[in-house]
Each structure stands twice: as C-alpha cells, then as structure tokens.
Design brief:
Blueprint: H1 8-20, H2 27-36, H3 43-55, H4 59-71, H5 78-90, H6 94-106, H7 113-124, H8 129-141, H9 148-160, H10 168-178, H11 193-197, H12 202-205, H13 225-237, H14 240-252, H15 259-269, H16 273-287
Helix pairs in contact: 1-2, 1-3, 3-4, 3-5, 5-6, 5-7, 6-7, 7-8, 7-9, 8-9, 9-10, 9-13, 10-13, 13-14, 13-15, 15-16
Keywords: Repeat, Transit peptide
InterPro entries: PPR_rpt, PROP1-like_PPR_dom, TPR-like_helical_dom_sf
Protein name: PROP1-like PPR domain-containing protein
Length: 288
Amino acid sequence: RRNYANNVSEYNTVIGSLVQQRRPYLLRDAYDDMLLDGVQPVRDTFHNLIVGTMKGSRLQDAFYFRDQMREMGLQPDVNLYNFLISTCGKCKNSDAAILLLEEMKAHGVKLKGETYICLLNALAATGRTDQVYAIVRDMTAAGLGLNKFCYAGLITAFKNKTPASEDTPAKILEFVQQSKGWQYVERVANDSAENIMMNVSEEELYNLPTAEFAHRRGFIFKQLTIYHVAIHACADLGSKETLEALLDMFTKENFNYDAFIVMQAVRCVIFDVEILIPLLRCLKSSQA
C-alpha cells in the first residue's frame, strides 16, 4: 500500500523520519510514491531528500533529486549546494565538487563561508593539496579568515595525498600550531540555521572523522577539533613520533582528553608497548 501519506506535509514527515533513522536507501521509493500519488514536492521536500542522501553518502541519488528539483522549476540555493558538495566529499568525488562550484557560478549563486569550507574538505578527501590551497586563496580574496575546519581540511588533504609526502608529519604539526590563532569565518546569522533544523552538525557537513560521534553527549569536546583531525591522521599514517609531539602540545595547553582522542591515540600505538603503557597512564591521570 502506498497511501501512508496523503499530502506534501505528511510526505515531508515520512522523509524526515527516514533521514533520522538513517535509511537513505528508501528515500527514492518514498519520492516515487509521492509522485504516483499525485503529490507535488516543494523546496523543503528536496532539502530533506538531499540531506538524507548526504548522510547516507548516496551521490547518485543526490544528483537525481537535484535534477528533479530543476525539472519542477526550483533552483537549488546555496545551502542545498553545500549539502551536495559535502556528499561529493563523503563519496571522495572531488571532480563532481568542482563541477558544482562551476554550476553555482554559472547560475549566480553566491558562495558563503560554509561553501568554501565544504569545498576545501571535499577536495581534501582525495588529497588534492594544490586545489585545497586554491580554495584558501579564494577565501582570502573574499575577505574570509581561516577557521579550525579549514585547518582540519588542510591536515586531511596532506594525509590523503598520493603518493605520500615525506613532509606530511611536519605539515600536520605546522597546521595545528597555526590554528591556534584562527579567526572565525565571516558568517551571517542564517548560515547554520538550516543545518540546525536539518540536524546536520558542522562535523558532518565538513566530513570530519568525528562526524558520527558529534551527537553523542560527552564523547568529544568540540573545542578540540584540530587535535581530533590531527591525531586521527597520525593513527591512519602510523606516525608515532608525530603523535607524541601532538600529545606534548596538547598537555602544554592544559586540555583534557576526550574519548575520541584516547581511541585514536591507542589505535596509533596499539602494537608499541613501550609507548602504549605510559600513554595509558598519562590518560588515566588526566581523567582523574
């Protein structure tokens, strides 16, 4: 039976429920049922659908809904483009992110701070450091400062760079140091309003490694974003020396470890008992 919803409001509720339940594979079915029932989708419907595809990393579905939106005479706005670019990053398709940027410019959609950061992190997902630096230059030219999410993207870009660069550990430490003087990206009050309504955290929008933990109370301390990304990079690269340097910087700033940092630090040194035991003792004393 298809008649589980009778109007656009009820269908929006169904779609929102599927998004909340993390069942993005059913969004296309719900949309098809909506059309079969003769219910006309509205802008909010498409925003819900595309947020759902972003959360589920379903790039093909995201572009399908964008095309459907256009066929119905609705032009995607800057927030919807942010979700699309973020989906490209989750799917490690930086070429599609660049095409979306060109599309925005062609349709006269004005970029904002969040858009630049989404682009930066989408390009970082495939290690395209040259294009990441180009986005940084564009931000500077637009009068925008770099914030912690930009530095997180720079670290991710060098971590994912292929072939691997010998100066990556040094770059990670350099970006962590530089981030201590970061300035907030210029933003309008409405910049994150839609994200809040859609239950999209900044960590999820920018594809940070803490994205799946952002809604867990007490699991991560959000002021430690740059350390989360840097220590996660150390764990992926297996760089114990860089980890030790980061933990030394961390201790000097009198921060307390959160669960994510402990998890990534242990992942990095799990097979090195000489480092692991002192690290666990240090972590235990910091939590006391």
